[in-house]
Amino acid sequence: MTKRPLEPTPELVRVWKTSGEEIASLPVDELSDVKALKRYLEPLCGTPRFRQRLLNDGVMLDDGAVLNSPLDLQLVLLRFSDASDNMDANLSKAAEEGLEALVEEILGRPRDPDFLGSETLPALWVASQRGHDSIVRLLLEAKANKDASHCRRQITQPNSRTTCVAVAAERGFIDVVRLLLDAGARQALPREGTTVYDTPLATAAAAGHLDTVRLLLETGVDKDMLANTNFKGRAPLAWAVQEGHLDIAQLLLDAEADANQTCTLGRTPLVWSCEEGRDEQVRLLLESGADKDRRGPCTPLGAAARRGHLSVVRLLLEAGANIDALRS
After folding, report:
1. pLDDT at 188 over 60
2. pTM over cut 0.70
3. Is the preceding peptide bond at 110 cis, omega within 30 degrees of 0?
4. In a domain, 85, yes or no
5. Same domain for 172 and 247?
6. Are both 209 and 305 inside the same structural domain?
7. pLDDT-derived band of residue 60, with 50, 70 and 90 as boundaries?
8. Does 305 lie in the same domain as 283?
9. What was the pLDDT predicted at 86?
């Protein structure tokens, strides 16, 4: 009987916990470097790579060390280094200025990405505000709070807060918005007392970022949720029409946004458009089923007449608006 040749034993990199338990065993040819191995280990040990250390015979391996031979490695998981205002300022400043290498170095100390000193903003928030997608990616990998928010500290509404995804949407940083949504960022946070939050769809609609609005709609966000952008509770459609973004209004209506949704002041999108004298928006809203006689503080016809927008008055009358509304 002919003996079959023995299969060659694969060369392995084996990783052990400090308890002596083996956590992973991988063929050498499936690995590249220590950083890649740490990323592989993250779901197994529940700890981001920044807090992992891999030792070979008691010697710590750098992230860039190439793994090309069999090894037995020990995995050590570190606590965050002691926090200080100075360290926090360094991380937030590096994130704000787009210093990717420095952010990675600080996180690898290892540094809590969410620790806040007395004078600093969340690092993920400032990176999102500046559109630094590579740094946002790093901070998310370090398990930074994807729903971190910042108080805008306005006199009119001192407790209004804006999340990372809302500020990125406001600035039109679509890659950052996509990263945050993929990480599970929420479109709105629960109220805390009198605290109110902007929503990404409202901030993007108000700022006129069509592609960002389209992305958010594709992810299934609530297209009619009232937001407090600039501290006035309005739905995204109301923000789009008040700011004159006809293309975004069309996109929202195509997505079946409520053309008759009232803001906290009782005004509908049609009333806002009539007050601003925007004929095309008025026509679009009427064609989309907006109520031409909806009463609030005023009707659409009353709003247009009071502001002297005769062409809008004509549009409303041609659509059958009740002329008695001029008395309201």
Report:
1. yes
2. yes
3. yes
4. yes
5. yes
6. no
7. very high
8. yes
9. 53
Q: What range defines the domain where residue 285 resides?
A: 260-328
CATH number of the domain within which 294 lies: 1.25.40.20
What total number of domains does the chain contain? 4
Q: Stretch 52-67: mean pLDDT, rounded?
A: 96
> Quick one: tokens of 157?
């509404």
Q: How far is Cα 313 from Cα 279, in angstroms, rounded to an integer? A: 9
pLDDT band, residue 121 (cuts 50/70/90): confident
Output 257-263 pairs: Cβ under 8 A, ≥24 positions apart.
257/223, 257/224, 258/224, 259/285, 259/288, 259/289, 259/290, 259/291, 260/289, 260/290, 260/291, 260/294, 261/224, 261/235, 261/237, 262/296, 263/226, 263/232, 263/233, 263/234, 263/235, 263/238
Q: Which of 124, 143, 162 is the last residue of a domain?
A: 143
DSSP 229: G
pLDDT band at 87 (very low <50, low <70, confident <90, very high): low
Task: Clarify whether residues 250 and 152 are in a common domain.
Answer: yes
172 and 192 both lie in a single domain:
yes
Q: What is the DSSP string of 118-164?
A: TT---HHHHHHHHT-HHHHHHHHHTT--TT-EEE---SS-TTEEEEH
